């Protein structure tokens, strides 16, 4: 179902970056499109849900979300919050890892800028499911800082410095919620898929059985009887890679022999081990062996000892 919206008025102009990202993914990843538009609706309603100009954007957006959800009842990434958050987080991390790899190899171009920036927007979209974890908050800020920095360097004819920036832990002002991707116009190509990244048929790991995410579309005043999203929805399990220095090296842990007795893990620890494995798989998609080894070692250490690697 296609969606045509009028230009956003100034009162909700900041939702344009969600809408642009939704359009860019519409043909290849409808799940990303759905949740970007839901994030746009929720943010737009918090800014202006009464003016005629705002409602001209928000009401058609709500109708589209309702129709899409009704037509996608068999799509777990639409109706199940655990699957949805994992899908979005995984896509954000794939873009982030690809852009970071290109950045460290001094391959600076508009595609790297856009991949970093879109990754940051997708981490923003994860706020639909609850407060971001500290790790995701850091990824979001780092991605937006690098997008702004590389864009400005290219614009000014300067050569960017690869890797982390000194004191660059906070997003640039122009990227802290502005409507447009830096240096990218509506005629620019869509967000690049990193090499070997699977297209819309990509299958997420099967999550534990949970109740479907019920009626996430917000309610408009005087509109249809759509209830607001449940406030108690659990946030996605935080990723486990740390980018404090953005210099990841594999660490080989010292673990007891497998015959020393099984360790009973809590549900939270099992979920964390699954996350380590998922990010190892993502790293292998880009032939990043160091990151893959690091995360596999973390998963192994946790399963064998019941403790995180230090």
Query: Structural class of the helix and strand makeup?
Result: mainly alpha
CA-to-CA gap between the ends? 49 Å
Number of strands: 0
Specify the helix fraction band.
Answer: 40-55%
Query: Which residues form runs of ≥5 with pLDDT under 50?
Result: 168-215, 221-260
What's the tally of helices?
Answer: 9
- Major sheet: size, sense and barrel closure? none
Our Rg estimate from Cα atoms comes to: 20 Å
Show the helix and strand layout.
Blueprint: H1 16-25, H2 30-47, H3 52-71, H4 76-79, H5 81-104, H6 110-125, H7 134-155, H8 267-285, H9 289-305
Brief characterization of the structure:
With 310 residues, the chain is mainly alpha-helical. The chain has nine helices and no strands.
What report would you give on this structure?
By secondary structure, the protein is mainly α. The chain has 9 helices and no strands. It has helices at residues 16-25, 30-47, 52-71, 76-79, 81-104, 110-125, 134-155, 267-285, 289-305. Helix 6 (110-125) runs antiparallel to helix 7. 38% of the residues are buried. Mean pLDDT is 76; it is low at 168-215 and 221-260.
